[in-house]
Amino acid sequence: MVIIMIIPHRTPCLEGKINVEGNEEHLKLILSDLLKKRKNTDNIRILPSGNAAIFIASKIIRDIFGKGNVLIPDMGGWRGFLRYPKMLNLNPIKMKTNIGVVDIDELMSSIKKHNPKALFLTSLAGYLTPQPLKEIKKLCEERGVLFIEDISGKIGGDCGYGDIVVCSTGSPKILNCEYGGFLGISRETEEILGNKLNDIKLLSKTYKTINYFGLLKEELLNAKKTYKKYVLTNKIIKEELENTYFKESEGISVFIECENSKAISKKINSLIKLDNGKSITTVCPNYDRILRNGVVFETKKIDVSELDDETINEIIARLKLAINE
Q: Could you read off the pLDDT of 98-147 as tens digits, one per residue?
């Protein structure tokens, strides 16, 4: 009989729990430095959620272009990419990807065919593998397409190429505050907005945000270390398991292909339990992850401080047991 493995779930860092409140301007300076591509702090808005940031990004598209098409990935995105543009009479069109990853030639073809005003993408497709962000940014610039990048899964890594960046700091994310999000607007986009930028500032102010600036600051200071640890852990898991995708890529969760995905998910959750009682897997097909039969092992839900060699090896052993039974 196998003893159940109970793992602590991801919670905010101790320093952040002690110093929840803080100075918003100091926070923005650290955030700007981490993103590198936004040197002044005026174009960062701290918000109560990542979804609020996506809605405001959609409003910016509407203010600049009026009605029109926007491209979103056919998988590995976020359901908010469909929901919030529609609320503002924009038309989301799913673009064919390579299992969530943008193919530059396909992107060019989609731009020519649909004449989109904007492109919504997550930096990590489904939290599983990176997008070719530099190439995407270059093509969008050349074709006059506004690039909205959701950096929730990759902040601390190479990200932040979007004309607008959106991020959730809810749980479980790299910036794990259990609340909040933010929006970053490039100088070029602000210039295009012109006087309409004032409307965006007023809209942002309608989202009342609690003072969690100290907590978010501490999470930002740990972001590079946190991202690197999740990537390394998932690399080890992917190397040891068969039927995992994106073995050579950075990711903060792992997709395991299998036909009986619901049964496998149930088995994994019977062997590896989070101490908050939540599932450690996502059953696929799932738009937010990948439209293939299988399960995503959500490593990002585990307290990053618990991921030592012994724990990782025990996780691998139990995943093998669940998959091979």
A: 999 999 999 999 999 999 999 999 999 999 999 999 999 999 999 999 99
- Tokens at 217, concatenated: 């600051």
Residue 39 has pLDDT above 60, yes or no: no
- Alpha-carbon distance values, 178 to 12, 216, 228 (Å): 7, 10, 20
Rounded to the nearest 10 degrees, the angle between the axes of helix 24-35 and helix 213-221 is 30
Q: What is the 3-state secondary structure (H, E, C) of 91-135?
A: EEEEECCECCECCHHHHHHHHHHHCCCEEEEECEECCCEECCHHH
**Beta pairing partners, 189:** none
Q: Residue 262 is encoded by which pair of tokens?
A: 């619901």
pLDDT digits (tens, 9 = 90+) for 279-293: 999 999 999 999 999
Residue holding tokens 């986009």? Answer: 189
Per-residue pLDDT averaged across 199-217, rounded?
93
- Whether the predicted pLDDT of 209 surpasses 90: yes
* pLDDT at 3 (0 to 100): 78
C-alpha to C-alpha distance for 324 and 91, rounded to whole angstroms: 44
Q: Is 176 exposed, middle or buried (0-12, 13-18, 19+ CB in 10 A)?
A: buried
CA pair distance 73, 96, nearest whole angstrom:
7
CA geometry: angle 147, 150, 152, nearest 5 deg = 160
CB 127 within 8 A of CB 301: no
The Cα 23–Cα 311 span in angstroms is 37
Main-chain dihedrals φ then ψ at residue 100, nearest 5 degrees? 100, -20
Which residue, 69, 251, 73, 268, is CA-closest to 174?
251
Q: Which of 91, 148, 95, 84 is nearest to 118 (CA)?
A: 148
Amino acid at 164: I
Tell whether the model's pLDDT for residue 304 goes beyond 90: yes
Q: What is the spatial distance between Cα 300 and Cα 251, in angstroms, rounded to a whole number?
A: 10
Q: What is the dihedral of CA 210, 215, 217, 222, to 10 degrees?
A: -150
